[in-house]
Structure prediction request, 260 residues.
Amino acid sequence: MYNPMERTIVKKKALVTGASEGIGYVFAKRLAAEGYEVTAVARNEGRLKQLLAEMGAGHSHITADLTTGAGQDAIVQAISAGHFDLLINNAGIAAMGAFTGISLKRHVDVLTLNCETVVKLSYAYLKTAKAGDALINVSSALAFMPMPVIGVYSATKAFVTSFSESLWFEQKPRGVYVMGLCPGITSTNFNENSGGGKADTPKLMTQTPEQLVEVALQSLKSRKKPTVISGAVNNIFAFLSRLMSRKAIATMMGQMGAKQ
Ligand SMILES: NC(=O)c1ccc[n+]([C@@H]2O[C@H](COP(=O)([O-])OP(=O)(O)OC[C@H]3O[C@@H](n4cnc5c(N)ncnc54)[C@H](OP(=O)(O)O)[C@@H]3O)[C@@H](O)[C@H]2O)c1
Prediction:
């Protein structure tokens, strides 16, 4: 943005959580290429520094564990202290396996990162957001379907989508755009990081993070949809989920999960 008073180019600023790998990493690089000044957040400092080196000068990182109060507070402070044109709440985890076979702490970490952190950072952001700003909460196509074996995860994403749709409506009159982004299966290390094996999914159902980020940034330009479901197959599944009984969906998803 050109500011004639200062005769300097004022860069747009974006904060991306979960930027050390996967979807967040691609978001950060793409935004940097589009001229944003990026603040990248995650726990793995080495990978964040690698990202910064790849993005070039003018970007920054904050190392924070967003399942902890201290980590959440550090990012809330950064958001409150400086104005960001865009916040992407992308960091998210799952715990794969039978519900009682996984530690309760791990389930609570999933809830904390995927829900509590998203609420806290959205709150800090929207308190000071200005017309033209945007908030993207990364949800999942599983927001529309309960997924046995990652039941806590799919429930957290139902929360993120519903929450984002409410915020979309509330923020519209002040010119702040809120998007709930629903990726389907995306080729990252998410499965392994969630305690599952390497996902063996049909190509037709899998997107690259680059494809997903392209869809998200196109939708960010048009600022129309509260919920952006990426990929034709995922849109079909989301549509079908509205026609099926809850029992049928849970059974179908459980049977699909059992084959993984
Ligand atoms: N991949 C998929 O198929 C898929 C599908 C639908 C939705 N999504 C959603 O997309 C988002 C990104 O997923 P992804 O596929 O890119 O996963 P990923 O490759 O596993 O990356 C997850 C990112 O979150 C960060 N993170 C994890 N725990 C954290 C913590 N406690 N504090 C701060 N950062 C943390 C990780 O960094 P550190 O480990 O360095 O902290 C990493 O940068 C998630 O919200 C996920 O639910 C993914």
The chain has a mean pLDDT of 95. The chain has one domain: 2-259.
